[in-house]
Amino acid sequence: MFEVSDVVAYGTNGVCTITEITTKRIDKTNIEYYVLSPKAATTAKVFVPTHNENLVGKMRAILTKEQANELLNNIPKEKPEWISNKNQRFETFKNIIAEGDCAELLKLIRTLRLHERYQFKRGKRLHMSDERFLKEAEKMVLGEFAYVLNVTTDDVLNNILN
Question: Rounded to an integer, what distance in angstroms lies between the CA atom of residue 133 and that of residue 99?
């Protein structure tokens, strides 16, 4: 169970602070919610029903500085293999996003950013679905790593790519 003032990672909302735990009455039923304030959006509020295991399961304590550094230091530096089959790539990337595993998300960002560079050199862009997966993966982890390590998201991205 999370507490008020805990800092958590929550899916594509990234780093959030639990500002309160409140109860709202909906259709004669009282439902308890975590109220999250995403660090990236100062006026946004996210309500997560405390009894919904699926949604609460997407909340996790943020990484420690040591965990973040270890993950960044263990990203494979060789050029990742590109999945040329668009449908297979879509399914693979969708599963990585759904799982939310930081190590896999870092690899996904590296893969897509390097492919983006390759496409740019050829005068092309990323496929629209690849671009969407890249933005989602970056929203999920760059802010958390920047917050934990007290650096900018650009610093984290440079670390992933170099």
Answer: 13
Q: Give this prediction's pTM.
A: 0.86
Domains of the chain: 7-61 (2.40.10.170), 65-161 (1.20.58)
**In angstroms, what CA-CA distances link 156 with 24, 43, 93?**
39, 25, 21
A 10 A CB-CB count for 34 gives 25
- Residue 156's nearest CA partner among 75, 42, 81 is 75
Answer whether 2's CB lies under 8 Å from 59's CB: yes
CB–CB of 39/147 below 8 Å?
Answer: yes
Q: Which residues of 111-139 are buried (b: 16+ CB within 10 A; e: fewer)?
A: bbbebbeeeeeeeeebeeebeebbebbbb
Q: Which of 156, 136, 135, 161 is nearest to 65 (CA)?
A: 156
Are 15 and 62 in contact by the 8 Å Cβ rule? The answer is yes
Give the tokens for residue 73. 């230091």
* pLDDT tens sequence across 12-47: 888 999 999 999 988 889 999 999 999 877 788 999
